[in-house]
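Dear support,

We are seeing what looks like truncated structure output for some complexes. This example has three components. We would appreciate it if you could run it in full and send us the complete token output so we can diff it against ours.
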Amino acid sequence: MFEYAPAPESVRPEIREHYGLFIDGKFADAEDGATFKSVNPSNEEVLFTVAEAGEADVETAVAAARRAHETVWGPMSGTERGKYLFRIARLLQERAREFAVAESIDNGKPIKETRDFDVPTAAQHFFYHAGWADKLEYAGLGADPRPLGVIGQVIPWNFPLLMLAWKIAPALACGNTVVLKPAETTPLTALMFAELCAEADLPPGVVNILPGAGATGAALVDSPVDKVAFTGSTAVGRAIAKAVAGSKKKLTLELGGKAANIVYDDAPIDQAVEGIVNGIFFNQGHVCCAGSRLLVQESIAEDVLERLKDRVATLRVGDPLDKNTDVGAVNSAEQLERIKSLTEAGSDEGAESWQPACELPERGFWFRPTVFTGVQQSMRIAREEIFGPVLSVLTFRTPDEAIAKANNTPYGLSAGVWTEQGSKILWTAERLRAGVVWANTFNQFDAASPFGGLKESGYGREGGRQGLEAYLDV
Amino acid sequence: MGSILSGAEAASLVRSLPGVDAVGLEARAAGLGTRSVKKASKAAAIDMAIGMIDLTTLEGADTPGKVRALCAKAVRPDGDAPPVAAVCVYPSMAAVAAEALKGSGVNVASVATGFPAGQVPLEVRLADTESAVRSGADEIDMVINRGAFLSGDLERVFGEIKAVKAACGDARLKVILETGELVTYDNVRRASFLAMYAGADFIKTSTGKVGVNATLPVTLLMMQAVRDFRRETGVQVGVKPAGGIRNTKDAIKYLVCVNEVLGENWLSPHWFRFGASSLLNDLLMQRQKLKTGNYSGPNYVTVD
Amino acid sequence: MSDRLRVKKTYKLYVGGKFPRSESGRSYAVTTPDGTELANAALASRKDARDAVGAARKAQGPWAGQTAYLRGQILYRAAEMLEGRAGQFAEELEAATGEPSRDAVERAVDRLVHYAGWTDKFASVLGGANPVAGPFFNHTKPEPLGVVAVVAPQDDPLLGLIDALAPVIATGNAAVVIASESKPLPALSFAEVLATSDLPGGVVNLLSGKVAEIAPWLASHGDVNGLDLGGVEDAALAAELEASAAETLKVVRRPGRAGASLDLVRQWTEYKTVWHPAGMASAAGGGY
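Here is the complete output from our reference environment:
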């Protein structure tokens, strides 16, 4: 037997014992002195304490952002703005490994993913949008696109640095200033990014980072920002949409999903199996666009499932900092509870659960990769977003039935289709009600490609030329 | 085993195989290539890889002296390093190799069938094979008729492999697909199955004599083919990437693929080989580095 | 004036390609600005709104599935029909607004022609191929949201209606429109234009009645994807409707200035991005 010895990543970033709020270019504690702790989800150890922004801090930060917008960043030429963003992109690339390790420690995701995906893609977003800063009039959005002003941004814990990049890079490129709230369980890379902004000599107030929980986010939404951009759950997105109703604030939302991954009987089968695995087990399934519903044509279902189980059995679950780890820790105790309760519902409702026989660490928040077969459209595990490494397998008989089942959800973020027949791909992609469709691939992302949903998965796009709309007054 | 199918049946089955998505295949291979194999597992992998090498010399300038030197190294590569799996030579050198390797446990592999182009009449290719077996070859590395394959004459390719298999007698047959000349992944998958249906004991990527030899994605694809073939027929077939695998890091990537795609059943020299020459010395130098902690140099391993 | 008794027109709703009365049996009197009674209009109920959404949903898929060229021709056909009845519409508009209206009708015709030309262009203007950093063909295309509920402007009963409606249907959506509350007659006549323009039944559904009564049912309806509040004059009601629409994350256009036509086209579409591997199937190394 060929066993791999532990292969721990050796770089260790400098993590401070305490972080403040980043307002107007400086770190400061919350006005009311509130703090909270950030925990390493793979071993439940406290990593650091961090100031928790309250209403007063939100007010100060928004005022700083307003000032920076009116006096520095708004008047600055696109060329100069772009150069700041290029500089940030380069600094991120230079410090990529530190960021990758920090992200892995704070979030629980495997170093393999932070190193090869999260951090490089975040840098790409800054590099890509930097180039837009002096070309906005060519974006096809009108002859004289103007910045909106101050943007309030709230991001989730699943891709902390990457979601920050998706939010901050286009906002800044378009001439806005930002106040961003990272998720309460994963503030670390946002705070390191704040340090990086200072290192890049970004003018004070252009980027403000306010760690906190739901109350901080709500205060930011209610503050006098010009626009709110949110990525997170549909429930919170709904609340934000209600909160800004009747105001002048613009809003873009990137919310939940329950993506169907359709595998036709003429699919490139081994690649499809990889796509299924990547679709649901990438980032522990903490992915809004995860391919959480496998819709496989009944005639090949048995074969696909056998191959899938063989493949899932080779996934290596464990220490996120081991370079060979495929599936890391669940981000929080709370999320683990949610995954457990939904999978219990799946079993109670009659679906059959399968898990590979992998050992899990004793401490930390862990969940085995799980495949549910015999799932029916009416079951909770086929309808609700689990946001964990749990795949629900359903079958279909005809292409029409595949489409009907795939679209039979209030969500509409992403979908997958696997077939070697080009016309069938186009036919299927045309009919899928989703903002992103992956054909013969899954979970691909790029700064040049717009991402976002339909229906209860939200509105607005991030990335690409189309993503600029969210940050411009055209 | 002999084939249970007619050429027409095999050709029809092979033509109906599902396609291969190139990007997905290459992404999977690249993913497996990121495995980090360190310390004890690296030492074990190095020794495993050494034991899987078909130490090869296939030059017009090969002489009995050169082959004997290679055989000596095959049996005792370096100190307590394990012997390699086989020495791979031209048919004219098979007898020399057999003599030199007698009783060592290291097999004699001989290329045959008009290696490397295979562009000689079938009777010559069969005579070539029989001669190599008579000279003491335990294993025959044949080339397929790429011209016939690319012209669509799958039945002919099938028939020729079957005939060579019959000429092999007890020798194990490795069928070289020459994937660099088949060009597409779909072709590689079809050729893999065709060879297996025709009775191949091993499918091998390359002769080492064309521009592109073994690559990780091609070998991964062939591993998936032997895995599927066993599921379908119960018959296990080996895989041999050959050409272009020059260092330890690459060799370990292939072993990781075997480990994660095929599993333990294939992790032995009986089912997996490296067709290589310079790879051995890199493995030996890495082995010394693990033992001493210092980087080794080419003068601390033998040239052959 | 002749002694002949004039045949007066009965104004009904337009739902699913038919002209029903309100299921509630209610109607309301429509007058000129100076109070002269013009006609009775159907006073649509929540059930009419529900039926209209059902008809719109049924029609939307096939409508979006038509070629853009055909959608353009149908919109152009509507312009032709409106032009042919310009006199009638000028009269109805003048009666409704108290102002000379020939010009407004002509502008409405021209607006329809303008949007007829957008149907087969907006996808290439808004979408395109994206140069992603990998072996993929990546393509973005705007697609219709689905069913869009429109509260038409109150003071500009024909041109305002067409400005709001044309971008909705040009892009392949189906519409449920609440006509100007006090001046619904030109809109209801416009339904006749649509009905004779080869526009499939259900693509446009027109309701007359009270915005405050009907709009909340549309704002909260689970099968409505977009909500145009352009004609909601009561700011508090608009805020309420927007908050209600938030429950199912509808795309909402707030009251206020309408942008350029392309902005309206964009308003009722959302982008779909499709990825496909584009690597050469090559075993000969370096496929891309």
